[in-house]
Amino acid sequence: MQPENSADRSTENAFQSGPFAGLNIVDVSGTVATSYACKLFADYGATVTNVEPPRGFPTRSLKPFLPTQLSATHQQQRPISAMHGYLHCNKASVVGDHNNLAAEPAVGAADLVVFDPKTLPHTDSLADIKVNTCAISWFGLTGPYAQYQGSDGAIYALSGFMKGIGEEAGPPIIPSGVQAQIVGGLSAFNGALGHLLGQLMGNLEQPFALDNSILEANMCLTDLLAINAFNKNPLPPRMGINRFPPTYPLGIWPCKDGWLGVTALTPSQWKAFCELLSLDDFTDVSFFNASVNRLASADVIEPAIIQALATYSAEELFHKGQALRIPLARVPTMEELFAVDQYVSRQAFSSISMHDTTFLAPSIPFRLFATPPHFGGRVAALGEDNSTQANV
Amino acid sequence: MSTDKLLNGLRIIDLSMGWAGPLAARNLADMGAQVIKVESCTHFDWWRSWEATPEWVADNGAEKALPYLSVNRNKLDITLDLESPTGRQLLLDLVAKADAVIENYSGSVLPKLKLDYPHLKAVNNELVMVSMPAFGSTGPWANYRAYGSTVEHSSGLPHLTGSSHQPPTMQHVALGDAIGGLNGTAALLSALWHKQKTGRGQFVDLSQVECLIPLGAEGVLHQSVHGSPPPRRGNDHPDFSPHGVYPCEGEDQWILIQISSEEQWLALQGVCAHLGRFGNNEERVTHRAELDKTLAQWTSNQHSTVLMQQLQSAGITAATLHNGLSLLEDEHLHARGYMQWLDRAFVGKQPHPSLPFRNGKKASPLNNPAPTLGQHNKQVLGGILGLDDTELEQLQLDGIIGNKPTLPI
Predict the structure, then answer these.
(1) I need a surface site. Which of A8, A165, A338, B271 has the fewest CB within 10 A?
(2) What is the pLDDT of residues A205-219, one digit of tens each?
(3) A with B: how many residue pairs have Cβ under 8 Å apart?
(4) Which of A211, A250, A366 sits opposite B149 (nearest CB)?
(5) Where do the CATH 3.30.1540.10 domains begin and end in chain B?
């Protein structure tokens, strides 16, 4: 098959440096979770090869898409996914036979093959070539839900995450986007790298076959719900928007120039917060030293907080509060996010190059100083590296 | 060799507190690394309590904090007063024999103690050090403070959640902590991989806020590509209906139902006969409010778990909304042995979540509960640094080590 876009790749092999240089990782499924796990390897220099079906990975169909006129320019038959670009920059793309993966050259040369068993049921042959594998699925490979239909929403529901979000009367709110899959991919990266490191240290001699459950990965956010319930100290039911026990005040409230995020947990933070806003009625009330008591009295405290905040600048309060060791925060909109000086100074967003256009995407959040990551990069077109693979 | 012994031979000094840093280190402890947690009697992990009182100390409250127990299992624990020259030197001696250090103090703390990376590197040139302050170690906010909630506030995520008529909406009391912890594990492993390959250590800087930004990638990309944020639609899907959370029998019982194909829609009609009049997807999206109301009337008389099983059997994406108690009773988690049980002084047998990855069918075993304060002073300071009993007694007398929290007078 000819690549759909064989534009010159001036950065060929330029990304094969960093701590993972020399590691060959293969993604044969292209879900958000498998893609994100492999992206973390690619960001630090592994050679990551996407073995895609002729139609391309599922991530190519994810919103948001690049503007339609750009798609038309490139005579695409379908929109071009910016989400695919974010997840797959600095990777190679070949089109392969998913019914005979063991025969794919990239798979044969791999240190690790990452897959979703639901999108790729024919992985039995991988056992014949004794390659390390990393299965990432919604609910894991075993158990009563193994064949269930999954989604990010289903993970938020079954992990206990969603029930605490939203108005008291409900319904609970479904978190946006593909967060559960990103967390699942991150956790699978940890599992795979831990096992690869174990092999490198000589602690693990046999190839491994990892079973990663996206549900279990996301339960790091909710395990405490179960532990508290076991100890007969369950957290109270949903308490309303931005109200989560045991912390109070906790919330996002409007100021003159935007939204301010407030958290005051310890007695000293609460006292400083009251002094900052001149909430004199509450400052020295010892009953309010305990966060749970403030939470129980939120109906009394909150109107005073809202009234006071409305008279201040959020930007000013943020810096003043931080100087007083109160963890206040600006709550930037998507538009404001790109201009926050802290994030600009750290290059928290980097440029992705895809089909002659560029856009900003999140950079990798951890930085190895001596072996820095790639910031942004270029996205391979479907099958762009077919000829390279033929020479493996 | 099983997963719980994978990283045998690695020694990590854990200076972190709260949730994020301890979780990052715990994941390596669960994989067999020797993780030595360092607290002090005056500056103990604040997750033991942020409102400590004399009564709490007398009641051994420091040993009963459930969140602390969860993220510190499989570790050793020592106490060292790092503000004393002797305590600081003992930490340096330990760092000299370690592979990595992890910490999540706000930016100014370790430099004041002269225990930041340059000082630690001076005693161990091959050291990996992962620093994970809320906003990262560089930039104008490097010394700013945050909890997991502050991290969520700062990430942009609240502007993607909920409906346009609601304020920016948080998802969790401390979203930044657990996600920061997973990224901290990734950072440690990446640098340790490089060290194992080359023999070289390095400093690793992790921003907990930047850890959350990928979770909002859809919004970031939409803003960048279209110049506007994605609309906040609540539980509605822009392209499909029905898609939402519907009430079930009992108080605060709910089920998630998401139809994403005509095949699933036909299957749903096979289970719920009242839906035929809503037509194709385009018509359903147009009349989604009426459809949601009809569907909610139907679900409200049904048990959420039974209904989930029925809908999933028909190939429909559906999930009951768990709370803490129902998580403990979930048949799937039970079948996979997800919760393991560890006996611990002061609190008895407690549930512990397994690692979310397993090599084979069984969850990797968890071996040791969280240590008590200073439980391993003798094992670590004696066994690793060679201090004898007399020296340890003197450290105790001088208040440099101990086993009980001390509150400021």
Answers:
(1) A8
(2) 999 999 999 999 999
(3) 481
(4) A250
(5) 243-329
- B367-400 pLDDT tens trace: 999 999 999 999 999 999 999 999 999 999 999 9
* pLDDT by position in tens, chain A (length 392): 333 333 334 333 444 579 999 999 999 999 999 999 999 999 999 999 999 999 999 999 999 999 875 555 555 568 999 999 999 999 999 999 988 888 899 999 999 999 999 887 777 777 778 899 999 999 999 999 999 999 999 999 999 999 999 999 999 999 999 999 999 999 999 999 999 999 999 999 999 999 999 999 999 999 999 999 999 888 888 999 999 988 999 999 999 999 999 999 999 999 999 999 999 999 989 999 999 999 999 999 999 999 999 999 999 999 999 999 999 999 999 999 999 999 999 999 999 999 889 999 999 999 999 999 999 999 999 999 998 865 55
Report CA-CA distances (Å) from B297 to A31, B252, B293, B318, B321.
Answer: 35, 15, 6, 16, 18
Reported ipTM: 0.98
Q: Do B144 and A322 touch (CB under 8 A)?
A: yes
The CATH 3.40.50.10540 portion of chain B extends over: 3-215+367-397
Contact B221 A330 (CB under 8 A): no
Find, in chain A, the residue whose alpha carbon is nearest to that of B50: A266
β-partners of residue B36 are B13, B76
Nearest CA in chain A to B202: A370
For residue A44, what is the nearest residue in chain B, using CA coordinates? B190
**Would you call the peptide bond into B242 cis, given omega within 30 degrees of 0 as the criterion?**
yes
CATH superfamily of A24-221+348-390: Crotonobetainyl-coa:carnitine coa-transferase; domain 1 (3.40.50.10540)
The pLDDT score that the predictor gives to residue A11 is: 39
Return all residues near A72 (Cβ < 8 A) that are at least 6 apart: none
Q: Domain spanning B243-329: which superfamily?
A: formyl-coa transferase, domain 3 (3.30.1540.10)
Cα angle A13, A16, A21 (rounded to 5 degrees) comes to: 150
Q: Which of B1, B140, B258 sits opposite A342 (nearest CB)?
A: B140
Parts of chain A belonging to CATH 3.40.50.10540? 24-221+348-390
Residue A213 C-alpha, separation from nearest chain B C-alpha, in angstroms = 6
Contact A158 B330 (CB under 8 A): yes
Q: Which CATH number fits domain B3-215+367-397: 3.40.50.1980, 3.40.50.10540, 3.60.21.10, 1.10.357.10?
A: 3.40.50.10540
SS (H, E, C) chain B: CCHHHCCCCCEEEECCCCCHHHHHHHHHHHCCCEEEEEECCCCCCCCCCCCCCHHHHHCCHHHCCHHHHHHCCCCEEEECCCCCHHHHHHHHHHHHCCCEEEECCCCCHHHHCCCCHHHHHHHCCCCEEEECCCCCCCCCCCCCCCCHHHHHHHCCHHHCCCECCCCCCCCCCCHHHHHHHHHHHHHHHHHHHHHHHHCCCCEEEECHHHHHHHHHHHHHHHHHHHCCCCCCECCCCCCCCCEEEEECCCCCCEEEEECCCHHHHHHHHHHCHHHHHHCCHHHHHHCHHHHHHHHHHHHCCCCHHHHHHHHHHCCCEEEECCCHHHHHHCHHHHHCCCEEEEEECCCEEEEEECCCEEECCCCCCCCCCCCCCCCCHHHHHHHCCCCCHHHHHHHHHCCCCCCCCCCCC
Which chain A residues are closer than 8 Å to B357 by Cβ? 187-188, 190-192, 194, 210-213
Half-sphere exposure of B361 (CA within 13 A, CB side): 4
Handedness of CA B354, B358, B363, B365 (dihedral sign): negative
Q: Tell me the pTM.
A: 0.96
